[in-house]
Amino acid sequence: MEIESFVIKSEGDWIAMRSGHSLAFKQFEEVISEIKIRLLKFDDYQVKDLLEKTGYSNSDFSKPFKIEWSAQSDWDQSTKDQELHGCSIFIPIEQNNSTGIFLKSKGYAEKIQAISDYLFLDDGTLVLSTVYENMMAEERIWFLNHNVRCRASVVRSIDSNAILQTSFTSEVRKLVS
Amino acid sequence: MEIESFVIKSEGDWIAMRSGHSLAFKQFEEVISEIKIRLLKFDDYQVKDLLEKTGYSNSDFSKPFKIEWSAQSDWDQSTKDQELHGCSIFIPIEQNNSTGIFLKSKGYAEKIQAISDYLFLDDGTLVLSTVYENMMAEERIWFLNHNVRCRASVVRSIDSNAILQTSFTSEVRKLVS
Question: Does this complex have an ipTM over 0.95?
Answer without folding.
Answer: no
